[in-house]
Amino acid sequence: MRKGAISRFFSRNQMLKLEGEVLDMAQMVADKMLSWAGKGPFDVKEAFNCFTADVISQYAFGEPMGFVAQEGWEPNFATWVKSFLRSAYMMRHNVVARKLAQVMPIMADYLGEDVKTVMRQMNVVIPGYIRAALSNPEKGRVFAELVQSDLLPEEEKTMYRLSGEGFNFLLAGTETTAATLTVITYYLLSQPEMYKRLMEDLEGLDPAKLKWTELEQRPYLWAIVHESLRVMPGVSHRSARIARDEDLVYRTRDGKKEWVIPRGTPIGMTSMINHWDPELFPDPDEFKPERWLVDGQPNHKLQKFLIAFGKGSRSCIGENLAYCEVYLMAAIMAIRVLPRAKLHETTVEDISYDHDMIVVQTKKGSISVRIKIE
């Protein structure tokens, strides 16, 4: 019910209407990056975190959170939620921890600045944005329309519910897409031949007039985007599912074994299992955009094995927004920023999956790609 009410705001047609705002925000990020010349290296992922958070907040609430406009790249929404992500598995498997989380607003002052800031976002900042949206319906965007509509019953329109949904928007729409863009940036800077081929693919485009639908038609960019989603799907944890009304029959690929999973059984699988299956993606540790092309054109058949956004009725509602952001920002980075950028003290280990805390983590922690602008 909740997904049905919200997903209409994230349809492909709605995102095509929004792409002008996404492009404007991407241009602002590129301008800010280029102004960093001579100021030393910075983590490009934090720049992308600012970009994605401002895009989703502008669309959801009617105004950006101001991360791109601030002087530096941090703090941003992703900076604050790192402590939240570190505690997610404890709360998922520990009943006592979950109970404590319910009184977190009371305890926040004793749990560190990051947790305190996250709770302030949940209990003060996001409700403030939603109240502002409701008081100005013409500019209030998603939440104003949602409350005015009959898409949800009245009990679903409480500030508590709406604030939780707003926090989910920011949590799901920030770190995930930023990570994919970070991987694209790393490989384009670390593999000059790949970057050269992409620029040939983008030849003739005016960075001021980029169109999402046109960028999708550039085969090599399409391949890079999908390979990036394979190695960096955003959410890497085992998404929980329950088949309530039917038994699930699982058969091995060779058909020799079969299991029945009784209805009502909680199950989960990480997308990393599929994305690193050598039978589906040979040499899975290698970043190979070419695997997505057949005779130089997109291999759409391979897409069915990509589950970066999930599948079916529980797939990510923000998939269209994510694609819009990735195509536009990746093209702007390639055309405007990367000719003047170089990697700084960054290796493939800084983006390589080691474990997850809801999102992909490296051996050092969160993924990070530092660049310098010349």
From TrEMBL:
Renumbered to this chain, the signal peptide range is: none
| Source taxon at top rank | Eukaryota
Matching entries from Pfam families are given as: p450
Please verify whether the record's keywords include Protein biosynthesis. Answer: no
Cofactor(s) listed in the protein's UniProt record: heme
One MF term in the entry's GO annotations: iron ion binding
Name used for this protein in its record: Cytochrome P450-like protein
Q: Does the keyword Membrane apply?
A: yes
The protein's matches in Gene3D superfamilies, at most eight in alphabetical order, are given as: Cytochrome P450
Q: Which family does the entry's similarity section mention?
A: Belongs to the cytochrome P450 family.
Q: Which UniProt keywords apply?
A: Heme, Iron, Membrane, Metal-binding, Monooxygenase, Oxidoreductase, Transmembrane, Transmembrane helix
Q: Specify which residues bind heme according to the UniProt entry for this protein.
A: 316
What species was this sequence derived from? Thermothelomyces thermophilus (strain ATCC 42464 / BCRC 31852 / DSM 1799) (Sporotrichum thermophile)
Q: Sorted alphabetically, which InterPro entries does this protein's record hold?
A: Cyt_P450 (IPR001128), Cyt_P450_CS (IPR017972), Cyt_P450_E_grp-I (IPR002401), Cyt_P450_sf (IPR036396), Cytochrome_P450_monoxygenase (IPR050121)
> Matching SUPFAM superfamilies, A to Z?
Cytochrome P450
